[in-house]
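Honest question from a wet-lab person: if I give you the sequences of every part of a complex, can you actually get the arrangement of the whole thing, not just the pieces? Trying it with mine:
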Amino acid sequence: MAETALQENTLCPCAMLHQSPMAWLAVDRNLGVVEGNALFWDEVALRQPVAPGTPLQESVSQDMFESLRGAIAQAMATDQPAHVPGLRILPPGHPHRIIDLVVVPGIIRNRDVLLIASSAVGDVGRRVEELTLLQDMIRVLRQQHDIDRVLFTTLTCATAGSGGLGFNRAWVLLCDADQHWLDGQMALGPASAEDAYRIWGELTSSPRTLDQFADAYDRWVSDLPRPLQNIVQQMRFSMAEDAPQLPVLALAEAQPVHVTDAANDERVGPRLAALLQAREFTVVPMVVSNEPCGVIMADNLYSGAPITEGHLRLLSLFAQHAGMAIEDAQLHREMESHQRELEQAYADLQRAQDQIVRASKLAALGEMSARIAHDLRNPLVTLGGWARVVQEDPNDTATVTTAAKIIAEECASLEQMLSMLLEPFTTRQMRLAPTDLNRLLDDTLQTQEHTAQQQAITVRRNLAPDLPIVPTDPAQFRRCLANLIENAIAAMPLGGTLSAATRLGDSEVLVEIADTGVGMDQDQLAHIFDAFYSTGRYGSGLGLAIVWDVVQSHGFSIDVRSEPGRGSTFTIHIPLAGKH
Amino acid sequence: MNDETHHHGLLVLFVDDDARQRELYRIRLERRGYRVRTAAGADAAMEALREERPDVVVLDIAMPERDGLSALQELLDADPRLPVIIHTAYPAYADSFLAWAAEAYVVKSQDVGPLLAEIEKAAGRRPPADS
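Yes, you can. This is the full assembly:
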C-alpha cells in the first residue's frame, strides 16, 4: 500500500508529500539527505532534522543505515521499490516498535531521489500500535490473581522494553485500608546505570516477550534489587496532610503528573526528589470506581530519554487497568483470608463442641459412678449390718428371722439394680403388634402393686373404656411403662398416690403416670431423660433414658409436668394413624 | 454389749428414709445400751425433736423427701446446740459448706464403730471400749 501511494506521490507536489501521514525521507543518489518530513525525524530517525546534503550515514542510526544501504542499492539498480521489513526502532527507555520501510526510486523537485518511507508510524498506525500494546499488557495482567504477582506484572508492563512501556524504573504505591497512607509496595528496574546497560544489552541480543518477563516473578523475588526496594520502603506519604506530597496530590486530583525538572519543580518535595534522584519522572494515579487505589511512578533515570505525551497517555490508560487488577487481587486476598478465618472459626467451634461433649460425657460418667457407689454402699451397709446383728446374738431368733428376710430382700434388690445397669438400650428390631394399652398398663401395674403397698402408696387406675388398639412393641412398651411406674414409686418414699390413666384425645391416645411425690425443679426436669441422670435415691439413672428411647423409637412423644414437693406427671402421646 | 449399762439413758434420734436401715441401727444401738428413736424424714425428725430432745441426731443426707442438708439446717434452726452427725453413703458431701455445721461426718459402713465413736464424742462422753 505504501508502495503504490509513494509511486503516485513521486509525481505529486511536494506540499502534498509533506502532509502525508507517512514518514518519509528523500536522499539523492549519493546518499545525501534531500529532505524529510517531521514524522520521519520524530518517529523513525528519533532526532532533529539534518541540513540538506548531510550524508544519510550521519542522519540515522548505524543500525538503520546498515539496513537501508542494501535496499537503496537494490532500488537504484532495478529502479524498483526495495523493502526493509521488520526494522526495530528502539527509542531509549521507550517501547520499541517494529516498522517496515520501503525504498522507492522517484523524482522530487525534478531531482532523481530515493524515497525512504514507512506508513506504520502515522497517527492511526501509532494508535493501533498503542492499542495492541495496551491490550497485550492487560492480557498478561489479567492472568495474575495473587496481589504480589499483579504488582510485579504491572511494573513489568511499565518497564519492559519490548511489549511494555519501556520506562527505566517504576514503582507501585497503594493506599492503606483506611486511606490514611500511600505506601510503596514494589519497585522494578535496574539498580544502577551499569546494571541497566548490562540488562538492556542482554535483552537486545535475546529479546523476551511480556509473558516471559511476567513469568520471571519467582526468580526476581528471590533476588530483589536492594537499592530500589529501599526506596520503596521509604515511600510512605500521608493522605491526610494539608500540603500533600506529589503522589498523594496526583491521586487526589486523579490526574497524571509529569515532572520534567524535579530540582526546580516546587510540587516535588525534597524527600521525594532525594529518593528518586531523577530529573524527569511521572506519577500516574490508579482510581477504581472513583475510589483512590494507588499510583504508578516511573522514570528514565539511566537512559535520560524524555517522557513523551503518548507515553504518558499509555501509562495512564494502563494504570486504570492495573488499578482494577490490583483491586481484584486485594478482594481475592481478602476473600481468601475471610475464608481462612471462617474455616478456623469452624474448626475452633468443632473443637469446643468436642470438648463439651467429652466433658459432659465425663460429667455424666462421674455422676453415674457416684450414684452407683452410693447405690451399692447402702445395700452393702444393710447386708453387712444385719449379718453382724446375727453374729452378735445368734440366739435372738426373732431378730435372726428379720435379718435373714432383710438380707434376702436386699440381695434381690441388688440383683435388680445390677440387671438394670447392664440392661442395654433398645437396639433390637421393633416388633409391632396391636396393643390393648389398658391391659398392658394394668398388667404392668400389677407387678409393682406389692412394692407400692409396702411403701404406703395408693394405686389409682383411670382407664378409658373405648380406647382404640394401637401398634406398639409390647415388650418394649411394657418396659417403658414399668420404668415410669418404678420412677413414680421411688418418688414417694413416704407414701402417696400413684395414678395411672389412659385417655382418648383428638388424634391421639394419652397414657399418663402421675405421682404425689417429691417432684422436680426446672433444673432437674431439663436432665431427667439424660442417661445416668437420676434424682431418686435408687436406680441407675437409666430408667427415664430408656423411657425416652422407647417413646422415640415408636414415634411417640412424652412430656412431663412437675412441681417440687407436689409430684410429677408423665404423659406419653400416641398419635392415631389417619386422624391427623 | 460388754458395757451396755454405760450408755443407758442416752437418746439417739436416727433419721433415715430406708426402713431396713432404721430397723438395723435401732437394734444395733439398743444392744449397746442407747435409747433409740427413728424418723423416716425431716418432718418426722422435727416432730421427734419437739417430743423429746435427743442427745445426738444421726442424719442421713440422701433422703429424697427433702434435701438432707436443708433438714440439717431446719434441725439446727430449731435447736442450735443439737449435736448432729451426718450419716451418709456419699463421701463427697463432706466437702459441702453446710455439712460443716454438723458435729461429725460418718460414711455409712457395716462397721458401726466409727458411728458409735462419733455419737460418744458428740454427747460429750468418752468413746466406748467396744465397737
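Two things worth pointing out. The helical segments of chain B are 19-31, 42-51, 68-78, 113-122. Residues 1-5 of chain B have pLDDT under 50 and may be disordered.
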